[in-house]
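To whoever is on call:

I kicked off a structure prediction for a single chain this morning and the downstream step that reads the tokens threw a length-mismatch warning. I double-checked the sequence; it's 554 residues and nothing unusual in it as far as I can see. Pasting both halves so you can look.
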Amino acid sequence: MKKYKIIVALVLVCTLSSITTSSIFAQEALTAKQWQEDLKYLQNIVHSDFPFLFKKVTAEKFDAEVEKLYAEIPSLEAHEVKVALARIVSLFEYGHTQITFSTVAKSGVLPVNLYHFNDGVYIEGVQKGLEKVLGAKVLRVGDKTVSESLALIKPVVPVENDSYFKAYGLRFLTAPDVLHAQGVIAKKSTTVKMTLEKEGRTFDHEFTAIDLKDKPRYFNFTLPTETWTTIRNTSKTPLYLKDLKDKLYFFEYLEDSKTVYVRQSSVFNDKNEPLKDFYKRLFSFIDNNSVDKLVYDVRLNGGGNNYNNLDLIKGLMARPKINKKGHFFFIIGRDTFSACQNLTNEIERYTEAILVGEPTAENVNFYGDNRKVLLPNSKITAYLSFAWWQDRPQWESRDATLPNIASDMSFEEYKTNQDPALEVAMNYKDDGFILRPMEHLTGLFLAGKFDALKVDAAKINNDPKYKYYEFEKEFTKAGFRLIDLGNEQGGYFVLELVAELNPKSANALYNLANLQAQLKQTEKAKAGFQKVIDLDPSSSLGKIAKRKLDQLNN
């Protein structure tokens, strides 16, 4: 039974209030014993007051990491300990549970804003005077490739999923203290070399860190100021960025297509118009004008107050002329988080919306609202979540809400003010596109339409519009469920199909070969295990396959 929300406001804390110079110096002057005391204090508080957070990480794993850091502290510099503490808190993998970026970036950040487009990480914005690197693709940070660098910093980020890391994690790549503590750069320094590519030329550039407060940032993009500039052509502004600094939400009527476009970038009330009044004005316009389509854009919505969601849901459900397939589109993305994840859950459950864009940054069910835990010696604040938000049954829980139709953005599309997600919504035609793949494939399976299932499964597996849909993972789970329920034949069909569609997946090949071995299909199993070994003999799965193959040969 769905519980009523009792938390008045859900706030993601993105920055700490300023720390005085004296307290910063106090942090730097702490002894190893004092840092160790802070670590133990954090460990004890977690166990005594927040044991429910042991959901994605076990208490044993958490304690092991604490003990490892405790032993390392005497050999670490102050900034390395701060980053390590952030790493400890990030083990819980809930975005609201964190030691904030501003804590680990106190000594400065590089004067660039990075964005992860679908064709790489680019310098989207810079401090003026650095225009020569504006729009460059980042190839290396220090001596590490950008992919290696991202992998090294990821443990410091309280990632819920890949979208969260793209939205909120990339800034950690601009903090020299994090880069050094995580082994991206060899020496602690306020200057960091990046290898860049621009206009066909590859070159190195040394960046010098600036104070964090001197870096403007709005929803991961750079809005031009007197001191900062963006690569985007600012002669016009796409709707998703329109009035971004001045309005939390607005709507606009696109008369030619009879479409109402809404951008809502917060679930908090705008000082000039509460959300309740905004929804009333929006629905009044829809009721009194010729409106054929509603495009509701929350791709930049990082949350707010869940209580504000209800009037939108009620208004949509009361308007069947707009709340129907092909007439209501809901754009989600990497910044869709917190109370807006709850809104997305409700949109999925109660409306006929077609979801477009990128996966959300939040788990479908998640730990949200946090409490401050002040570490006694360093005065660092850890934010630990206490409220469990469960809008969906646990068997429907997912790492993120996936769009029905995938749409992300290339660097060139951003630079030239294109909006692929909006274009998908505006140009959608009901031409047989499968909006809910798993439901569709399950229906074909239950109806015994196995040939049609194979055709549609191949389509889903290969179509970029389904790029975020984890077909292999989801269909494999379905195969094992069938086997657990005693339907070995059905499970075999599904696992065989997964392996056929993913011939380079060691997991898919191994799962099928293992089932074949259990069913005494020895020759098929041997061939399957050999394929796994051929893909990567040194991997753990390759080694297991080798043992299985040896057993079958003996």
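Update from on-call: the warning came from a stale cache, not from the record. Cleared it. Sanity check on the structure: The chain has 20 helices and 17 strands.
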